[in-house]
Design brief:
This protein folds into three domains: 115 residues, Lipocalin (Beta Barrel), CATH 2.40.128.640; 113 residues; 111 residues, Lipocalin (Beta Barrel), CATH 2.40.128. The N and C termini lie far apart (77 Å). It is built from four helices and 28 strands. The protein is mainly beta. Helices cover 12% and strands 43% of the residues. Strands 19, 20, 21, 22, 23, 24, 25, 26, 27 and 28 form a ten-stranded antiparallel β-sheet that branches. The protein has an eight-stranded antiparallel beta barrel with strand order 1-2-3-4-5-6-7-8. 28% of the residues are buried.
Amino acid sequence: MYPLKLLIPIGILVLCMVAACSSPQVVSSQGGEGTSNARVAQVAVGTWVGTIPCADCPGIDYTLTLNPDSTYRERLVYQGRSAIPFVQSGTWGVRDGRVNLNKQGTGNNQFAFDGEALVMLDGEGNQIESTHAEAYRLRRQNPDEPEDNPRLWREKYERGIDFAAIGNEPFWSLEIDLEKMIEFRALDEENGSVLTPVPVAEKPETGEGIVYKVQTVSGNLEIRLMKEMCVNTMSGREFPYTVTVLKDDMEYKGCGMYLRDSRLNGTWNLVELQGKIINQKDFERNQPSLIIDLAEGRVSGSAGCNRITGTLEPIGDRINFGPIAATKMACPQMEVENQFLKVLSDGELRYRVSEERLELMLGGKGVAVFERGE
């Protein structure tokens, strides 16, 4: 048995070890040495807040959100002047161990870590030396899973992005505009970013998906979008695509999805088919309709006589309906139902949607028109 005088120091040592293990991870990038850009980028993601000095007001309520897709949002509210915030957004990255906001015009755009604080630097990238220096230390706000923010995905869709993906450790993002460009960005700017026209898509050797292969002046890029369920390691959210990006000798893995117009969600009643008006009174059972659930990637409803169910996937302005299953009831009039099911089975459909109207098109011609239902 150990004597008591030996047990006490051992106990203190154990407590110190436990405390060290449970302490939050910190990073110091003052001067940019000893810490990799990838590590700084990983720690920087989140929302940072503080009240910074103001020359002619009591202070500026400052909020900086650094998203894992390398976009940022900066929000300033000048106390005593107006409650209306000044908001600026753009992209960010890490160089020499420092967070850099890619801003247009003047303004503080560099930040360095000091322990758990993100410190705003002056216009030359130096630490601010003044009696108010402590006010430039921003604290981390509890993260709100920015990569799962519907507003973020909606903004991408409105910019014309058809497919988006993100990955962690290191953080990276991928945006594909099927009619224009592919942009791959790594927050660790040493590994660089690539902007290139969309090449011809290839089929993978096995599985369901798409492969893009690109040769650029900055190196080779291979992007594999595989239709396999993927779980984001930070948020736990499930995505329908597993994404792998091979850039030279680096491999980036993450999750992605085709972006969808949220207005597609809900019930849509068929009012016109192949140029003919559809009257609800002509159907003994139910008016033909679609009930779209984008979150589940599923569609259900009625073909007029039989109930239907299946899958769907909007890709850009195209909409692909998977195999549609229908019940087997017989009704006196099946002509419209058969035409309706034939339209849904076509793999070349495109769509236009507003709050109250959905139109399916084939070869530039409308083949089915729906109005919003209850």
